């Protein structure tokens, strides 16, 4: 028996709305937070569920006819069976309001052995993985075409076999894909925008890429991004797309923010700052803007200080103390911001400020000689290999390791130069350069 809402909706079928979401990753842990701040991690532990709750509430409030979920409902194997129970309960909530759900499973879902046994309410329609399928909503004259992933690594072009559009219907393609490829995402189910357009559908509901992106306006080919950022790479607003259709044409395409925690990256140019007091003053508007942009959400902030600055040496040698001072400033100003990481990316205002050119050159030669040794390269590779085994996201491993290999020698130069500059100011130059040599040279005893 149809609900009153569903009957009313069918009587006005020339106009309807639907929600397009993807990459829910329900109960996915927010990477690294628990190791850095247990208090902050506890506050946002259920972030993915609360963001999904917001999606359900939005679908009901906007009287949506249906919800599309373009893959990665789950984050691989469930850590707790309650994840499946929770999802089923929210599907039942939509059923009580006459809202249908159409979903495909993505690469992370394919790892979950419980999905085949997951019992869901009758309003949920799941696309199979063997071949593309078409599902109809007769009352709205809508045809939805989709196919799930059969395994984690789907390297063939699934879209190539999607059926032709049904004449006279509003045709939607539901696809989990990297499309033509995106940095940081595995190139699963590759395809091109041109071939998606050529299929002749009215809307393409894509998933897999965690950043919102409109690939084409006519017809809309869109990644809504994920509902909730999960790590410092997934910055900015997250949510879903609300689509309005009138007389068979799209009349509205709205991004709705649904995340409950926001990851942000900000940078501060220290080039013109005379002292640390000036730096704290410059931070004040940056922190205020960050909090305002989050619109009441807690923020995990990754802050970089850059520029050619007279404060370079002090910033490099006192990074931990500065981090604590910034955390104190945030608390004093009443912002709901957690300083997730502080990086110092400044350069000396002058390359040899306060240093004798001969000493500076001598220091650089020492570091260059050490960096060139096979022993140091082997030690660096050993350390990075150990780190690599603990990295959570395989798609980012190679680029991170390459970046570290390139940047670490430069960081050594920066730190040693700062220590040497301190030594010249205190009269301990030769002790400092000796300490720098000892710290940088490998221990031949192993």
TrEMBL record:
Highest taxon in the source lineage = Bacteria
Q: Where is the Calcineurin-like phosphoesterase domain?
A: 16-211
| Record carries keyword Repeat | no
* InterPro entries linked: Calcineurin-like_PHP, DNA_Repair-Maintenance_Comp, Metallo-depent_PP-like, Mre11_N
UniProt keyword terms in alphabetical order: Hydrolase
A Gene Ontology molecular-function term?
hydrolase activity
What name does UniProt use for this protein?
Putative metallophosphoesterase YhaO
Gene responsible for this protein: yhaO
